[in-house]
Structure formats: structure tokens, C-alpha cells
Amino acid sequence: THVCLFLSKDGLVCTFGAGDYGQLGHNSTQNELTPRIVAELFGARVSQIACGRWHTLVYVPSLGKVYSFGCGAEGQLGSADASNQLIPLPVELPSDWVNGGKLNQGNSTSEKVIKIIAGGNQSIVLRLKKK
């Protein structure tokens, strides 16, 4: 089973392919034969996307949040609940990374860059120093 997703230059996320675990983000487990906008992310201006085996990650810099959806059986969605998520929900990040619900990206002298990576049943969120 394959999942395809793409990110427009305006930050819209479209997905299609296998939806068995909700990894397409369309609030269902249906397969999609043609690209469809992920409605829950409409207007959010996503800057990064990443696909694992049966899960998806997206990063919305204006909100300072990473969202996940799809299979959560092995904790890859970043939630204490190992169930599947059919829509994008915020990832629970370490408390020292979060300030008022948004990623603490540092002050102007030590600005941070967020990078998301997904593979197999893993998700990685990196907070890197800007060069």
C-alpha cells in the first residue's frame, strides 16, 4: 500500500493512495484515487511534510506546531494513546520545547529551526540552531 502527499507553494497539503490507518488525514480509512486537500489543514500554511509507513507528519511554522495522523500503534504519532488518528492532531512535544502551546524557537540571538522526519514506524522532530 502506498500513500502520496504533496505540498503546494501556498502551504496546502494534498494526499491520496491507501488510507487504511487514517494516514491521508481525511477523517476516514478510505483509499483516495485522486489528490484531495486535507481539510483540517486548510489555511494553515504547512511548510514541511513527512511520511512514515502508515503515518504522516506536517509542520505549521506560524502556529509553531507539528501535527500527526495515521497509525499510532507504536507511538509514532507522539501521543500516549496508541490508537489511530484520522485527522491531524498536535504532537505532544517535550515541555521544555513548548511555550504557551507553541514551539519555543528561541529568541533572536539563538533562533531555532524545526525539521521533521518520518520513516517506518518512527517520527523525529529536530530543533536545530540556525546557522
From TrEMBL:
**Keywords for the protein's UniProt record, in alphabetical order:** Repeat
Query: Which residues belong to the signal peptide in this entry?
Result: none
Check the record and name the PROSITE patterns matching this protein: RCC1_3 (PS50012)
Superkingdom of source: Eukaryota
Where do the RCC repeats lie?
A: 11-62, 64-129
The name this protein goes by in its record: HECT and RLD domain containing E3 ubiquitin protein ligase 5
Species per Swiss-Prot/TrEMBL record: Chelydra serpentina
